[in-house]
Amino acid sequence: MFARETYVQRREILKNTVKSGILIIPGNKETGMNYKDNWYPFRQDSTFLYYMGINLPNLYIVIDLDEDREILFGDDLTPEDMVWVGASEPLNTYAEKCGIAEVKAMSKLKETVRKAKQKGQRLHYLPPYRSKVTIEISELTGIPVAEVGATKSIEFIKAVIAQRSIKSEEEIIELHKAVNITANMHRHAIRRTKHGVSEKQIAGELQAIAIAGGGNISFPIIFTKNGQYLHNHATQAVVENGDIVLCDCGAETAMNYAGDMTRTFPVAERFTAIQREIYSIVLDAHESSSSVLKPGHKFKDAHILACNRIVEGLKGLGLMKGDTQEAVNAGASTLFFQCGLGHFMGLDVHDMENFGEQLVGYTDEIKKSTDFGLKSLRLGKALEAGNVLTVEPGIYFNPYLIDAWKAQGKYSDFVNYDKVEQFKDFGGMRIEEDFLITTTGKQLLGEPLAKTIEELEELKNS
Amino acid sequence: MFARETYVQRREILKNTVKSGILIIPGNKETGMNYKDNWYPFRQDSTFLYYMGINLPNLYIVIDLDEDREILFGDDLTPEDMVWVGASEPLNTYAEKCGIAEVKAMSKLKETVRKAKQKGQRLHYLPPYRSKVTIEISELTGIPVAEVGATKSIEFIKAVIAQRSIKSEEEIIELHKAVNITANMHRHAIRRTKHGVSEKQIAGELQAIAIAGGGNISFPIIFTKNGQYLHNHATQAVVENGDIVLCDCGAETAMNYAGDMTRTFPVAERFTAIQREIYSIVLDAHESSSSVLKPGHKFKDAHILACNRIVEGLKGLGLMKGDTQEAVNAGASTLFFQCGLGHFMGLDVHDMENFGEQLVGYTDEIKKSTDFGLKSLRLGKALEAGNVLTVEPGIYFNPYLIDAWKAQGKYSDFVNYDKVEQFKDFGGMRIEEDFLITTTGKQLLGEPLAKTIEELEELKNS
């Protein structure tokens, strides 16, 4: 946990923003895999962590804005619990550590919410992403399960987004830590990937590094020779010389701050000539689009710049043709780059994605697009100092998409399908790094990791 | 997947047992950790796997017993899904692989259930252990969320338990595989655990072995120098010479069959004299209680035998006193052995625990006890050939329990608390192996793993 004062101040700002009603903040519970008590690794809710820092299951916080009361609801371990899990500090101690004055038994929660409702107080809650919480919110408030999502508090959501979007110094230290563990995972992947190993073999080793770092992986590891599929997880497939491997993985620290990086590299000792060509385009798109990041610059413009660089590069190889800007405006670049340039990162790897991308990454003026490609851009708005985000352009030769669009003659003014045909088994490449927006520009998070072709080949063969 | 005929036959038996109504069998969905789309590793429901073998999310099966129809509900990937996850075989192909004739879109499920209800057919479903499924069953059947658990079909549950309790030859092959990967995890743990490593470091490496094996861990890894707490997971604590480490872990195969073993060993090269003494008692309890396993023998009796051996051993060390059988009958052994001797194992590491331990491990004649200790014995009934189970006695010096019971004078006729005081920082020891009940006795699953003090020390220092 951070210092007590951190949590007190964060809640103070929150209370001054939302002003009236009660805030109901559920912590997460353990979640069963194949039966109730066979748990997935516990992951506390990020907003709960942000305001209270208590990394334990089965808690609720209620903040009464009208009476200025903060209450932690939960139950201390019984002697019998201690047979199974040992002792734990009492909840009073945890409440003290984050500056919360009152602790009550979980059995009192329903009554507290009921009384607030009776008094006509607004019940603010965030949109649940776990069904268990949906059911609980329904039971607490009397709102039917099917309507819980729709009755979330936009006011509360916006207040949380405003705070969590700007990282404090202590958060940035944690983020550097997360990215450094993440970079270690990549160093291991680049060095250990050899002809004949399975994707899952390496993916398991990467998870071990994340776990040894004190936390766990921040999202399911993408380690695949089929990087053309954007979220393709590791399988039992064996990688071979000639393949390129896309590794997109991240650690989260014991305090649950996330890292998220991608490297693409050959299984063999060297990139092939054509792999070098495509890689160089992705690297150029990465360098160009990250170089413009600074407060006030729209992330959507950085995305468009990356698209431009990709089209330019692919024109150079004869895969695309026509006017670059027109091709990007028309959406032709999405045949090769089907997703967005990046996203916020923090306590969640896609930070605050549970609140919805329009509210987190856009504004009333800059709405999220519904077009293929741009609709997967999670962040579009102007940047602010303190934002932390990823930059991750890529080129993906998806054979299904190529076949479908070729058959439709889609973007035939901009795409040389005959040439593209030759790349249908190429795979996909992505380069991803994490940045902090500073007052004047940007700062790379973590120690630099091999990124150029020369650096990657050197690391691979070291 | 197993051969088509396997699934057809399993469903045939099920249909002949339950006879009338419709069976609603939900597959599991992806589950978000900290937001909806940041998924935990997918784990299919075990009963769904048993009858259909399809390891994909977002499916339902409805079996109409009255009209003898089997329908798989689900949706094929869209071209846009293929951008993210690549291609997949159509559901028709999967249905064929498990011998199901009809495939319908998920949107048709509700209508199918509604019609059955209208016709007055009984709607059979198993007790959900995931909140998402609870909500879905409620939406499908009109039963309120809070009552879904209570309206489960006991008839359906009993039919499934009867089938899944007896493992077929092909299942036993998978179980051997799971236990062999599990034994490899233990070999690694025993050799790699050295003064100065953190619990999480080793736990991560063990998970990597499970993942490389094609599946994942079958339950959260227990790797701890505080083995006195029965389900204590790995922490960032560093282990040191003089500590003993309890490692309880298991792999599940790509087909989701589980292994589950425990070894306890010193961090240093050798057990200390007192560690040897306690270990020898646990080993004796393990050997004695597993030697009696055979069809017709009640597992509860094997548990009682283990308790007896533990009391005998502790009497030898002066920690207990009085008549052994009386001590066990009174429950005095539960100061040191607070849980049960073992449990069924199969597609779930605690096989079918979602159906409730009374139905799975007991009968109308042998009810599950509510006494401390015995109430944690998940299996009590007479064994049958084809059962697969664990045997895992242990001795746990839980300082909180010792203090509490000493203060109450509990079992003071049988416990020498003054002597026990000296063991309050000893920790805990457990030995666990997995067995198949054969027609004449039992068979160890997997290749034997170092278990005696000599074998463990030899492996450690090899």
TrEMBL record, chains A, B:
Q: Which reaction does it catalyse?
A: Release of any N-terminal amino acid, including proline, that is linked to proline, even from a dipeptide or tripeptide
One Gene Ontology biological process: proteolysis
Q: Which GO terms describe its cellular component?
A: cytosol
Top-rank taxon, per record? Bacteria
**Which EC number(s) are documented for this chain?**
3.4.11.9
Keywords, alphabetical = Aminopeptidase, Hydrolase, Manganese, Metal-binding, Protease
Q: What class of enzyme is it?
A: hydrolase
GO MF entries:
manganese ion binding; metalloaminopeptidase activity
The protein here is known as: Xaa-Pro aminopeptidase
Q: What is the lineage of its organism?
A: Bacteria, Pseudomonadati, Bacteroidota, Flavobacteriia, Flavobacteriales
